[in-house]
Fold this protein.
Amino acid sequence: MDKKILIILIVIGVLVIGVLLFVFSQGKPQPIEPPPLVLPPIEREPAGFGGEVYGQVQGPAEQLPETNPFEAQTNPFEQETNPLRSTYTNPFE
């Protein structure tokens, strides 16, 4: 039984050495260069009716009146909602 285990270990060792030699003898794989990408030229169709009209038409938002008659204020209730605004000063500002 002892010789049987020794023979199995020798066979496994020879196989491992053979696999390692095969792997390291191959070297680094050469990178495969993809073929250059060649796109067909783009064929443009002549401008149709939409291309002619596009430059002559005005958008509906170009003639809107001003809808806010007041000044732009981020908080219109700034002084009325905070009664402590004048008493507290932020030390980090």
User: Anything to note?
Assistant: The mean pLDDT is 77. Helices lie at 2-26, 49-54, 78-81. The longest helix spans residues 2-26.
